[in-house]
Description:
By secondary structure, the protein is an alpha+beta fold. It has a single domain, classed as Electron Transport, Fmn-binding Protein, Chain A (Pnp Oxidase, Chain A), CATH 2.30.110.10. Helix content is 25%, strand content 36%. It is elongated, with a radius of gyration of 19 Å.
Amino acid sequence: MTTDPTARAVSEASTGKKLDQLYSLIDGIESCMMTTRGEDGALVSRPMQLQARDAGTDLWFMAPVGSETVKAIALSAHVNLAFTRNNLQEWVSVSGVARVTTNRRRIRQLYSESWKAWLPAEGGNHDGGPDDPRIALIEVEAQSANFMKSDQPGVVQLFILAKAKLTGTMPEPGVVGTLTSAALAEGEARPPKP
């Protein structure tokens, strides 16, 4: 059963095919909204840039050590990541558990000069470089994922939407997939494509 009435379900698809579809979506979208729980229990979403995807769907993000994101994860490690590619009406929703680390080796592996924008120079090793102690990484271990993968070119999707509007029928712009924690664990043995 699909969670989105505007899309076809892919429940008959193999776990491997669903994993491939999920990975291709995540690998093709650089930013997402990360939802955490605040001190008062309210949900808060903020944009985050994906730094890397390890085997399976362990996803890595950078945040300053004292940031609101890091503080929220300390309160509750359960997060949701919402990726979207509007031009193709494709999306991914990943529920998982986040862990904050300041492991220097991993930071150096993932380091990007773009991080300096979030870490203004303050002197010494507070320079936004890979040894800046203000850098923290957030690893999100996926527990479940839902996604919609477009199976039509953008122009065809526009036609499908226009036709649905004119005929009063429900458009089907793509296929929806769901992956449980067991299915995601099966994918952990599959390395990410370069």
